[in-house]
Target: Peroxisomal membrane protein PEX14-like KPWE domain-containing protein
Amino acid sequence: MSEELSYDDLVEHIVLNKPIPNVVQVPDTVLDSKLGSQPRLTQRIKPWEQVEVAGEETPTNDNFGLVNLSTNSDLSKDMDNLSKLYALEADYIATLQKKEPIDNETGDVNNDQDAS
Model:
């Protein structure tokens, strides 16, 4: 029963309101609003809203997701270490651009050129 229609045949079926083969007719059904269930989950709070839990207010994120380095000493140390790493990397790149020889064992710049 799988009958293939050309484009012209399909247009003809639509224009003449003929049933199109292999298309299932679905009846229009309207559900009663009484059959629906009530939502059980509470609405999620926004980050800027405050919540009361057992009489206590939880602090909101007033800095909009930014990290306060003055209160978090571990993160502050990490940022300092990261800054030092970037400074070392910049020095290393500058040294490479000067094309000065580097001692492989210590990583120091070897300024005395061997004539051998």
